[in-house]
């Protein structure tokens, strides 16, 4: 029995090695099929994640508003902790105050510029973002109204409201001087939206200008998560941080879901069509490779081999080829997916180890099925006819 | 030979389907991205600065407007087919019965237009604000008979004032009053929740602003910006004549804005960066992704065909050996094999091409609900591809055949 098995393996390996050119063709066909399988499946699974990251260029998809008067830094930190650093793409807290420039009111926003860059990647800044104290970024419309350019200086004045109200009507000596601060314009903001009417400064500058500690009015968050998870996050934040009411920016979240679903469906369908066609291609190649060995099959039958043993031998060959091609193809496919991901999204693909056995199993299956048909027809033939060359 | 024809047909159908989908995916995704709403806003020239700056106070001072009767002209610009949707807006403050002031915004819900070109277009916020969630009632139907007395109420207003669908609402504007039937309540997840939307004519009557509009939002299919577009956006005057022509005749957001400014008197049209830029980015990525997938499947199909052609030619070594033995030239044999294979390739290719169109339509219908446009470019591409791939597939086989020694082959080795 052991000898028989030994002989079986020897037959398979010998047939694979001696008929090198044909086997290379078959192996190539199988590994191409496997490569397309593993490559496309990897892309299909990874596309929503990668595309989701792209969709963050639409900016903030969650807004934290104050449930009470305002939001403190602790509240913002607590909310950020609930989401976790892996899903949180960007966070920008905003504080809005009305300041006067040349005695005309302008809305001034103070924020963390690094965060704003991430939550509003579509902002186009002519010049630089403010980095140091005393630097300010102004909206395009503000720049036009005051005829300001990058590098010019401007003065913002702030009238402390509460003190003014308290001072109302109590005599001249009570009049409070307005706070003022000089700024250098570092950038002009172009967004096509309301932001063009605002000026943007750093948080410490706003604190200095108003003389009040920093409390935020609103906080913009850009979160990379599916819409279901996103509303779960929003609910959790609203529940566990009492000072904050979290809302989703419907315009961004709803539209993202629509477009992402379509995209994924597209990739899925393309994957299925391509896979089906490639698998048929692999099958036809295998069929051709096996079919040309009809003479060999005939000879074996003439020498007294049973149909079962012939099928077993050819299937054994097919399976070895399928496994080898599957392994090779899975590796190539991963490399392909990685290349696509680097080219399209500039980020690495997530490695899915389970795809390796799946690819190998699929290619073994396809190869086995493809061999079966020609072997069956060959074994049905009368050896005498085959050997005679008909 | 049947097998070769079949494989070539598969390869050709794969190539046709992938190429068609790849070439059309940009347009399709662009359509889908319209869900993000308008990418161009049009406001009057003088007030584009002042009105929103003074909006900080509670008084809404706006002293210049766009003309309502010019709205149709937007569909007459050079890139008219790229204008998918647009809607005018007119905001005015009005008091409710409870005494609270709200912003009443006049607009089109589903405005029907018969254009001078003979086309018809249904435009309005119903499609421009596809993310609005109608929590109660339904979208107002502008085509209905009592179309002027309807309103769509923002969820925050509805909650505060206790309004629900079907109620009658009395509003008093600066110059008139109206009683409106509430058709529905919407949740927009933004500032709009504090507003009431009414048909444009109603808002005009409330504010005594007949024939006036204070902004227009336009949703247009655009090409992602490049250097030329950025240069032009800063100052179209800085372009040379040929650059200007290229820019004007390309659907950049900036050139469409420019063309809108040409037809609407005293207007400033500007791209909404949030939508316009992101759209460009996502479009590029999707297209690149599809190109790479197409590339992979083409390589797969090509190698599959090559393989099979090689295998099947090698199979005929005996026949070729015999030919050689009775004195056939190498050239004659090569010609014979090549022409046989090419005939098969042509038959398979034609069959595959039509199957491929079918596949592309299946993909288009299931994913986007619309047919994938067939580009004539695909036909020569697929034809050239099939011929080249088949010829390359023959090369190793023919080299082997030429080195064949008739005696050995005929002897059965």
Describe this entry's structure for a reader.
The complex is a heterodimer of chains A (390) and B (413). Chain A is an alpha+beta fold. Chain A folds into two domains: 2-54 and 257-387, no CATH class; 60-248, no CATH class. Helices cover 58% and strands 18% of the residues of chain A. Chain A has 13 helices and ten strands. In chain A, strands 1, 2, 3, 4, 5, 6, 7, 8, 9 and 10 form a ten-stranded mixed beta sheet that branches. In chain A, a hairpin with a 2-residue loop joins strand 2 (88-101) and strand 3 (104-111). In chain A, helix 2 (20-55) packs parallel to helix 11 (307-345) and helix 2 runs antiparallel to helix 12. The longest helix of chain A is centred in the C-terminal third of the chain and has 42 residues, at 250-291. Chain A is rod-shaped, with a radius of gyration of 35 Å. Mean pLDDT of chain A is 81; it is low at 163-174. Chain B is an alpha+beta fold and 413 residues long. Chain B folds into two domains: 2-26 and 280-410, no CATH class; 39-271, no CATH class. Chain B has 13 helices and 14 strands. In chain B, the strands form three sheets. In chain B, strands 1, 3, 4, 7, 8, 9, 10, 11, 13 and 14 form a ten-stranded mixed beta sheet that branches. Chain B has a two-stranded antiparallel sheet with strand order 2-12. Chain B has a two-stranded antiparallel ribbon with strand order 5-6. In chain B, helix 1 (2-33) packs antiparallel against helix 9 (273-314), helix 1 runs antiparallel to helix 12 (378-402) and helix 9 packs parallel to helix 12. The longest helix of chain B is centred in the C-terminal third of the chain and has 42 residues, at 273-314. The radius of gyration of chain B is 32 Å and the shape is elongated. Chain B starts with a helix and ends with a helix. The model of chain B is unreliable at 48-61 (pLDDT under 50). At the A-B interface, helix 2, strand 3, helix 5, helix 9 and helix 11 of A face helix 1, helix 2, helix 9 and helix 11 of B.
